[in-house]
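Give me structure tokens for this 162-residue protein.
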Amino acid sequence: MTRGWRRRVREATDADDGQILLLTLGFVVVGLLLVTVVASAAGVHLERKRLVALADVMALDAADAVADEDYFAPGAGQGDPDTEPATVSSASVQAAVAAYLQANPEASARWSQFGWSAEATDGGVTAHVEVAAVVRPALVSWVLSPWSDGITITAESDARTG
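Here you go.
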């Protein structure tokens, strides 16, 4: 009776030969797909951080585009509440952003598709800059294939003149 039981156990376990290899292979494939998703998401996040930093720099540069007569007006920058703050116009903000991008072509060269808009807000006291770019995932697998053409990311920044 003991021999029959041993034989049946041996026959039942022999049917599972090779199953661990398939399970291991499946887990390796899932793990590699997970790595591609995490690496691509991290890359897109870093590109967005770069875009936010560029928007901040361009907004600060545009807020400095104050006309000389406003900047050097008597009492300007003295903290006097009766003195009007220095202002910028939408044209000067746009010109400052365009000049920054022309002087620093590497700032937007990393993106194949890049666009921006800039304007003066709050009565000319604030320079508002919006930028957008298309980034592509670093590693494209079948999981990420819907985004292989790129992901549009945007950033905006405000800088005050005063």
